[in-house]
Design brief:
This protein has a single domain, classed as Ferritin, CATH 1.20.1260.10. It contains five helices and no strands. Helix 3 crosses helix 5 and helix 4 runs antiparallel to helix 5. The model has no long low-confidence stretch (mean pLDDT 87).
Length: 166
């Protein structure tokens, strides 16, 4: 993978992270309590991802890719895992905007997983393969959390909304 390809990949990653930041921040303004805390924390994680990618993007021309060390994401960051209580799920389910935000978040996260998986497969340099694999895992952890919330809130969503004609 040459410098231009890597820059393009990082730019795409930056745009995806910004989409997630905007989604989570917007949802947080509609929520309260533990649901608001979840969206705020998730926005902060996405900002962290964005800043990490931006830092790498700015340093691309300063390094010879064959000698990159430490490009893999910093270990130790654990994604925010809320305590998923029935109350948390009901709050998501009863608000169409929040429920839709979870659906959209799941789509954004799985899109990111697929993107980083493709970039990992395209990379020839072992350090870039490890980097894209770590980013793929990072996004996969987010996807699994959001999907679990969405799936568990679904029954409450159906019970609360009754789905009558307009």
């Amino acid at each position: 993978m040459n410098h231009d390809s890597l820059k393009n990949a990082l730019q795409e990653g930056l745009m995806a992270e910004m989409d997630s930041v905007v989604l989570y921040e917007t949802a947080s303004k509609k929520a309260d309590g533990e649901v608001k805390d979840f969206f705020v924390q998730r926005a902060e994680e996405e900002k962290s991802h964005y800043n990490y990618l931006l830092d790498l993007y700015k340093k691309i021309d300063e390094r010879d890719m064959s000698g990159w060390q430490g490009i893999e994401k910093a270990e130790g960051e654990k994604p925010y895992s809320p305590v998923i209580s029935d109350d948390f799920l009901k709050r998501i389910a009863k608000d169409q905007i929040l429920f839709s935000a979870m659906s959209t978040a799941a789509l954004l996260e799985i899109k990111s997983v697929d993107f980083y998986r493709r970039k990992k497969e395209e990379a020839h340099e072992p350090v870039l393969k490890r980097f894209f694999a770590s980013m793929e895992q990072w996004e996969k952890e987010h996807y699994e959390t959001v999907l679990k919330i969405q799936e568990e809130a679904k029954q409450f969503y159906w019970d609360i909304n009754r789905f009558e004609p307009f």
